[in-house]
Amino acid sequence: MVKLKLDNQTVRIDAGELVGYELDGYEIIHQKGSPGWRNSDTEMFPIIGPTADAGFMVQTPRDLAVQDQHGLLRELKYELVDSSDTHAEFHKTYKERTPVVNSKFPEKSTRQYLFYTYSFNFVKKYRLLPEGLEITFTIAGERDTPFMLGYHPAFKIYTKDATVEANGKTITLNDIISVGSRALQVPNCTEIVLSDQKAVRIETEGFDNFMLWTEVENMLCIEPITFYPYAVEQKNLHEGFQFLKDKDELFKVLITPID
């Protein structure tokens, strides 16, 4: 467990996963073991979205890749490479076509192993700032490597009256729950405010979209994404790819508690 602290902010990170973020003892992050989701954060990479109806296969320029829902990055273990009182840096590395054990097999998937047709390096950095918690993702690989990226944090909800403000609109928990497993799309958006007992602002760079998901009233996933996967059929998920250029791709999320 890695712990970060700055003034009245405290962060807990377990094997790269954000499992706690407190401000003066007020917990912002959904806690494992509570109803709703078994995790508190994860990343969706190199694809976002379901793949079952496409035989767990996604077309890439090189060949078909075998991917379960939201990709294979979550099946790899983070390595802690650097940390201090206010920052921590984690890495994942993947070599093209290396089989990766699928944790959803056999209960939720027919594919025991997953693989991708490109190599990549993935870096996740946490940094506590006076204004809040900054999380950055850096993707490195050869030019034209196709990818999608989504960050999937879950926020603790205290009241049934909690709302989300996005693009000048107010979204209720019931609005989100009614959409179901597909998740509610919030297009062309880089900032969301979650209003509950306390308010939290989520700002992003590089994602440009969100999707909102929950099936319970005690947590809410506010997910920055590069592509909304339900805009296309599962067999056409490749339409959401973007491609690495000559330099690494950097994405940012800033979680700011609002007094």
From TrEMBL:
Annotated coiled-coil segments of the chain: none
Key word Calcium present: yes
Protein origin, superkingdom: Bacteria
Pfam families for the chain: Aldose_epim (PF01263)
One annotated GO biological process: carbohydrate metabolic process
Cofactor: Ca(2+)
Annotated keywords: Calcium
GO molecular function, one term: isomerase activity
Subunit structure: Monomer.
Protein name per UniProt: Aldose 1-epimerase
